[in-house]
Structures are given as C-alpha cells and as structure tokens.
Amino acid sequence: SENAGGVKRKVLGHVAAGVVDELARTFGLDRCIRLGLATRDGMVQRMQSCFSAKGHILWHKLFGTTRDVPVKLEICSGGGEWAAAQAKSEGKDASWVALEIMRDRTHKAFS
After folding, report:
1. Handedness of CA 62, 93, 74, 79 (dihedral sign)
2. pTM for this prediction
3. What is the pLDDT along the chain (111 residues), one digit of tens a residue?
4. To 5 degrees, how large is the angle CA 27–CA 28–CA 31?
5. Would 62 disulfide with which of 50, 75, 80, 93, CB 3.0-4.6 Å?
C-alpha cells in the first residue's frame, strides 16, 4: 500500500541518518561537514539513495558505478592492505568492501 511505502521510506531515512551520524561521530565526517565539504542533509540524502525500497544496499549507487560488477567482501581486513591491493589489481572489474570491527584497525586503513 501507499502508506506502507511511506513508512519504509521513513525507516530508510532514519537508517541513513543513523549511518551518517555514526560516521560523523566516529569516522571524521563531522570535520568534512564543518569544513563545508559536505552537508549532513546532503549525506543523508545520498546514503538513503543507496538503499532499495526493501532496504537492500544498492551497491552500484554506493560505489557510483554504471555497470554491474561483482562486490567482493574482505572480512577481518585489519589495516586493509590486502583488500586495497586486490581492489587496485582488479580495477573496475570489481568493487571491494573491507570489513573490520576493531576501530583502531579501521582507522589505520584510512590513515
């Protein structure tokens, strides 16, 4: 129903806002916002556009690709060296996600 669609959009908006707020709190997005490189509302809108109506991640929108390429996931990626090397060697033939739950290791991957 139309009302259910509105509820889904509202929930996805909350999810997107939560992701952006967490990135601002823990990952430095707040600095980008303070420097005027991005706005919170713009980031929420961009993040929300990366989810389907069913809440599935739309990888092509997240990565900004125009063609369907495989998404590869490196779990427990540590500092990300291996995943970065794989992504570099595959170029545009695949999109890579590196997953690490230890914040110090995650920070190392981007520093």
Report:
1. negative
2. 0.66
3. 556 666 677 888 888 899 899 888 887 888 989 999 999 999 999 999 998 888 888 888 888 887 788 999 999 888 888 999 999 999 989 999 888 887 777 666 665
4. 165
5. 50
